[in-house]
Amino acid sequence: MQQTINACADKLAEKLISLSESKEAIAVGGHTAAFTMDVIASTAFGVDVDASSNPDHPFVYHSKPFLGLAKSEQFFIKSLQIIRVILIVLLPRKVKEIFGRFFDMTFAGQESMSYFENLVNRVLDLKREDAQKRNDFLSMCIDNMVDIKDVHKDSINISDGKNLDNPRVYPVYLTGFSCEYNDYEQMHEIFKSNLCLGLTKEEVIGNAVIFLIAGYESTGATLQNLFYLLAWYPEIQEKLYTLTSEISDEDGNCDYEELQKLEYLECCILETLRLFPPLPRLDRVANKDVTVKGIRIPKDMIVEFQVYALQHDPKYWPEPELFRPERFSSENKDEFNQYAFLSFGAGNRACIGKRLAMLELKVAIAKTLKMVKFEKGANTPRMENLTYKKGPGLIQTMEPLKVNIVKRQSE
Ligand code: HEM
């Protein structure tokens, strides 16, 4: 997998070198996002995209509705898409089922659904022909796939939620892929029974798409934020450059084990995530009545955690607005409360993509710092002046995080 990520990071480094010819400060966010799109397209779907050079690639186009982005910038089409999504979210399920007989009521649109379904079919064909040895997520799942058509509805007995002749079938409702058993309660019962042994095609597609939704913006934004911070902290940037150069060849390729051992690199990423947690708030639902520090939380109440506030609280983080990677060093790790850092969440539902995200970030940092350095320019916003967009979802600054990119002279 690291080789695949290396290839994507090479494209990012090339792009940044070409941008270094500009004298203006540049918002790198679009390019770091293109890098993570390339990584997910290749590691999850086995598709080579190069999103930065091919912004019209079908993978980029059909990913947009899943990422909450409009496929078209035309006002009329954009408005129609927004109305459609609002209707899909708000309409009761029964009404949606009736509408669905006449209109496309899939969340991302039938065209994009079909695109991803066809990708899986193509991987299936390649696998059958054994024409290529692949190690992307789709190819790995396909060996354990069950065909939904082979399962009769009657073979599922959900009366007690456990007695299932074939417990392997339940639909992926999150991404809106419809299948024969698209009854929410039925799916939930089967899911609860925890007896699912294989994956249907719908589940495979659904999981690959979830990788895209969960891993694209969070990782791309973290890389952008780190480049921005390095521009303000040149001494940290040079230390990182020296340490990564020691373990990399002339193209910036690093050995996996060596990369994992580089503690300072990990600390820089974690400190970036502390200052800019991509998900600024998390929530949980109480599954029973409970009293915490005198506050009664009734069953089913949603409890929200303000991750951003926690990670900027001087009670837990002295001088919280300063970028200090050594806070996370093995020497200092016991100094802070582990639950005061929730950028990847905690507990049973913590981020499952953390290892992939860390690997992507480490590879990209080692590669790019080998080629370029980031400097603050006249248009680089000061940290204390940053403001954030209001609303749900991922945190986003109002100001583009522009930095100057300077090509390194090879020594
Ligand atoms: C820097 C990058 C990333 C950050 C900061 C991040 C952060 C998070 C957070 C905060 C959660 C919720 C945890 C909770 O509620 O306790 C989460 C969940 C999740 N993440 Fe990530 N994530 C990142 C990258 C990725 C990647 C690359 C993938 C997949 C390829 C991924 C897949 C997921 C999935 C599937 C969940 C849901 C887990 C569940 O509900 O059980 N994430 N992530």
From TrEMBL:
Pfam family, one: p450
InterPro entries named in the record: Cyt_P450, Cyt_P450_CS, Cyt_P450_E_grp-I, Cyt_P450_sf, Cytochrome_P450_3A
PROSITE patterns per the UniProt record, alphabetical: CYTOCHROME_P450
UniProt-annotated binding residues for heme: 351
Keywords: Heme, Iron, Metal-binding, Monooxygenase, Oxidoreductase
SUPFAM superfamilies the UniProt entry points to: Cytochrome P450
Names of required cofactors: heme
GO molecular function list: heme binding; iron ion binding; oxidoreductase activity, acting on paired donors, with incorporation or reduction of molecular oxygen; steroid hydroxylase activity
Protein family per UniProt: Belongs to the cytochrome P450 family.
Function: Cytochromes P450 are a group of heme-thiolate monooxygenases. They oxidize a variety of structurally unrelated compounds, including steroids, fatty acids, and xenobiotics.
PANTHER family found in the cross-reference section: CYTOCHROME P450 FAMILY 3 (PTHR24302), FATTY-ACID PEROXYGENASE (PTHR24302:SF15)
Protein name per UniProt: CYP3A4
